[in-house]
Amino acid sequence: MFRVVVVLLLGMFLTGCGRKAPPVPPEAARPRPPSDFRVILHPFFAELMARVPVEDIRGYDLRRIKALEISRSARPAGKPGPELHRTFRVPFGKSPAQQPLFTYRDRDLRPGWCYTYRIRAIKGFRSISAWTPPRGFCWSTPPRPPENLTARRLFPHTVFLTWDPVTLDLHRFPLRGRVLYRVRRHTPAGETTFPPVPEASFYDTSARAGVRTCYSVEPLLSYYGTLVPGPQSPEVCLIP
Fold first, then answer.
1. pLDDT in tens, 86-119
2. What are the beta bridge partners of residue 184?
3. The sheet that has 150-155: what strands, in order across it?
4. CA dihedral of 119, 125, 130, 135, whole degrees rounded to 10
């Protein structure tokens, strides 16, 4: 009887253990690439933004991302020259679910150069996502803010804006390129950004009568396919 019990227990033990699943190699559990990667230009820096992956390539949730790696290439604008490459890591160390948005500001920009960026997520050793598609721009010294902005009410729903044309950059050198202007309208209901215009004037035909409305103008230098923004003008306000 004792031998029978021992045999049964041994059989149950062996059956319960079974074979353990082989460990998943790091490459098989690497993160998905960051998504919605874009580069937004400001007068003094370029802001890189992307959504951090929350799953690995198998569809399992990621508990932590160790770092984001940025690849930056730089080359002279409009002429042959050396292409400079730089790759560096930005520590993240957080749960993607708690902080899904990654941002990085690159202030090391040289006028007359074009830049291209890619990023990827790093979970750990040999567990690295694929690169995002590249995003790029060409950089020049930004234009000065427009001066003498005025706003006049023409009709109950129409406001006419004028300002001095911008011809100099922030260092007071002549601009090399066409300047466009982007008008922003602020009301208690929120902000409206209008498409860029080439003239130093603008008709707002959608103003709300009786509502305090403020306007500012942002200059945009057209430079090798990039609109380089300058500082906005001071706001002017009125009640149409």
1. 999 999 977 888 889 999 999 999 999 999 999 9
2. 193, 216
3. 150-155, 158-162, 201-204
4. 10
- Determine which helix (DSSP H) or strand (DSSP E) holds 135, and give its type and residue range: strand 135-139
Q: Same topology for domains 27-139 and 150-238, yes or no?
A: yes
CA–CA distance, 130 with 124 (Å, rounded to integer): 14
Domain ranges within the chain, ordered by starting residue: 27-139, 150-238
Q: pTM here?
A: 0.84
Do 126 and 73 form a contact (C-beta atoms < 8 A)?
A: no
Concatenating the DSSP letter of every residue in 39-58 gives EEEETTEEEEEEEPP-BBTT
Query: For 2-48, what is each residue's pLDDT tens digit?
Result: 454 444 444 554 444 545 556 766 667 789 999 999 999 999 999 99
- Architecture label for domain 150-238: Sandwich (2.60)
β-strand pairing of 179-187 with 158-162: unpaired
Domain at 27-139, CATH class: mainly beta
